[in-house]
Write a structure and sequence with these properties.
single chain, about 425 residues, alpha/beta, Rossmann fold, three-stranded antiparallel β-sheet, globular, disordered C terminus, binds guanosine-5'-diphosphate, binds magnesium ion
Length: about 425
Amino acid sequence: MIIKKFVAKSMNEALAQVKEELGEDAVILQSRKVEKSGLLKIGGAGSIEVTAATPDRNPPPKRQPVELDDEKKQALKRAAETIASGEELQRSEAERTPGAEGSLHSVRDGLNELRSSVQEMAAHLKYQNAPSLPPRLAQCWRDLIDSGVGERNANDLTQELFVNLSGEELEDEELIESHLHDLIFDRFRTASLPLVGSRSQPLVVMLIGPTGVGKTTTLAKMATNRKILGGRHVVLISTDTYRVAAVEQLKTFASIAGLPMEVVYRPEELPKAIAAHQDADAILIDTAGRSQNDRDAMADLKAFADAGRPDEVMLALSAGTRIEDQREMVRHFGVIPATRVIVTKVDEVTSAGHMLDLSQLIPKEWVYITTGQNVPDDIVPADPILLSVMVSRREYFDQLRANAFALPSAEDSTA
Ligand SMILES: Nc1nc2c(ncn2[C@@H]2O[C@H](COP(=O)(O)OP(=O)(O)O)[C@@H](O)[C@H]2O)c(=O)[nH]1
Ligand SMILES: [Mg+2]
């Protein structure tokens, strides 16, 4: 992956540069106005700085896996052991001051010692499963763990780097980072919704998923966001009649957005409701978010899915849910074959690494991620570049969070 900064007088100029240098597929990661200041005045007004990324078109050829003899393996093991525990230990030993006099001093020393032992233990526990790796890769592994990537994925990624890079390359931090981006990028599968305008029948989309993940909100965003279906002839159908409030919630959205809405109480009524809106561009079906442990609820949901025969069944999962719980949910909702995944509440997690684990959990393409409660704005297409940079560059994700996930795009930009 190539990540580059561009500075220009206007957004259009910057975007032209991006296109010229990185091609049509480049993704804008960030843009900001640089106010004129001090020595760096460019022209009269401020300038625009755009950071963009694109997959590396000519990645270096993959190497044959390096054969490790026993000696090298042993050396690696020793190196990893030093990394995982020794560094901290050595440091605290060296810092220990000999012969401190007086009771206050010795109490303080004792406390310091205790604190450093606890810190050592914590570091040791956190990284106790660190695989045997050369120093730069070991650092890379720890960064991945700190970003929330699960141990298994962190191991796979660093092992793959180890196998594909030569000894010399393994000293090169930038090169490792760039390869790591590419490996993470390859692991995300994403897709766009079919273009509704090109169809003779409405695109029928059903949203399923656990209670409270944000299905109804996401559906409202999809219906009204200009970059998705906003401005199209969209019909909403609620099958979530389990709670009165759920129907009311969608009704409110529908009336504000001026969209037709149907409430369907039984699966067998669904085909009729769909048939009544064959002139629509898209029909979005909301479903009940009852507990995935409720067998009757799952059977009901399946009956709606079977009756409605939607073109797309989107499983919504919240980014903040623990991976063990996600696995359970994916298993339970597996009775209804989902075609795509939507990952919600990305704004509620403090690091993005966990999303990499989530992407491995269900072999379906992601279409959107949602980044807040605002309808229609807080939804963006799932883009593998965006996702992989979020995972591999902690500071980028932190910045996104700090900016309330205001992702710039060519459409927004009038500078
Ligand atoms: N922070 C955050 N909250 C969200 C997001 N999407 C939905 N919500 C909130 O999550 C709660 C449940 O949403 P709802 O759409 O009713 O979930 P449903 O039960 O799956 O239909 C509401 O308070 C929403 O505003 C999101 O992307 N980020
Ligand atoms: Mg709902």
